[in-house]
Amino acid sequence: MARDERATLLEVHQALPEEQFQSLKFLLEGQVPAGLLLPASRPELCRILLQRFPGNSLRVTAGILRQLGRLDLIQRFQLPLEEGIPEETPREPNGDTPKARGDPTSGCRPGGIPAPSVNPRRLTEKDLMQVAQRLGKEWQEVGILHLGLERSRLEQIQEENPGNPVLWNFEMLREWRRRERCEATASQLRSCLEPARLDPGILDFLQSLQGD
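Below the sequence we write its predicted structure tokens.
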């Protein structure tokens, strides 16, 4: 474990506001058990990453920062970015990516074949986080009435992320995206949320994504 790697990792974590630090831990759940992540402080998370990704912890962290839209931190600390791996396909512990294993939730075509570029793109985790940050306290009402999710699943989300409403919203949107798969586009989510009493900025944001 290089001292420089540990020091840089801690500086990156300390540069994140508490809300984004919690989001970073949440996005790491596909690669690190949630039981280790949830109670971890910033120094403890550094130790976990250094142990699980020896020599590669900065690259893993950079991938999560990109999903959070913190390219400024990637540039400030000159973090390495892994080329050729899409934003939403983190590596599994065995080195594979979900698409390589034929995970049906990771793409819109079986066998890992990407959908044609002419189709509207699926919402990314960064997109969902920006919507989640704008959703109000009536998130369960939105999930049940407008996204068609089960109340029991929403309560489970709340229990798994105590005291963090933004992550409740984010995981709710991720649940909707998993169900919709190829149809989880900005246009589709906007159609779902239009009847709800929400911050108009959410609909404006989704409208802006429709031209991507």
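DSSP finds twelve helices and no strands in the chain.
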